[in-house]
Amino acid sequence: MTEQRDRTTLAARPKGRLKRAVTLVGMMGSGKTAIGRSLAARLDVPFRDSDHEIEAAAAASIAEIFARDGESFFRDRESAVIRRLLAEGPGVLSTGGGAYLSEQNRQAISEAGVAVWLDADLDLLWDRVRHKETRPLLKTPDPKGTLTRLYEERLPVYRLADLSVPAKRSYSIEDMTDAVIRTLSGRPDVLERLDA
After folding, report:
1. Do 13 and 39 contact (CB within 8 A), yes or no?
2. pLDDT tens for each residue of 70-108
3. SS3 state at 143
4. Other Cβ atoms closer than 10 A to 13
């Protein structure tokens, strides 16, 4: 009975055909990678992760790149990788939390498709990142204070995204993916709904 209900629920989930790139932007902990993978699977398109690509090219973690080469070097590599990944055509791209702050990245993202801000509030973000050792920007004496400052600084830029989807604590990955697809449905130049 449960298996039948699960199949019915999955069949009822919104689907579509992606025509252009969808780039997920937002703070660390907003779910860009998890939602990106789920969205790409649902839409049957490639999932690309700029942080993963940078790490693969450098044979080092983001934290190691920050420590060894500094944030400025990292941001330059990040911009080059984002442009390359966007040039690969329709797909879902997950970016690092600071990527959208760059005007050249915002322009490249808009030219290739659409930016979708996963809008998670500060409490939810802190719950998701506070036990992670992989966040170089939070390696400070007051990580919550640092996260708060970054959140407040970045919020006006994230609000420039083409679309935004509020993240709710009660949402599963599938629920958030549904919300993203519903939001993308308002952009037929990006997503053609197949179940409308």
Report:
1. no
2. 888 888 889 999 999 999 999 999 998 889 999 999 999
3. helix
4. 13
**Within its chain, how far is the Cα of 93 from the centroid?**
7
The alpha carbon of residue 129 and the mean position of all alpha carbons in its chain are separated, in whole angstroms, by 15
Q: What is the number of helices (H) and of strands (E) in the chain?
A: 9, 7
Annotated binding site: 29-34, 51, 75, 97, 135, 154
Domain boundaries defined on the chain:
20-177
Neighbours of 168 (CB within 10 A): 12
This prediction has a pTM of 0.85
* Residues composing the chain: 196
* Phi, psi for residue 132 in degrees, rounded to 5: -95, 135
Give binding residues for substrate as ranges.
Answer: 51, 75, 97, 154
Measured at the alpha carbon of residue 136, what is the angle toward residues 149 and 46, in degrees to the nearest 5? 100
Judge contact between 163 and 116, C-beta under 8 A: yes
Give the CATH class of 20-177. alpha beta
Point out the annotated binding site for ATP.
29-34, 135
DSSP secondary structure code for residue 20 in this structure:
S
Give the residue ranges of the annotated binding site for Mg(2+): 33
Query: What are phi and psi for residue 124, nearest 5 degrees?
Result: -65, -45
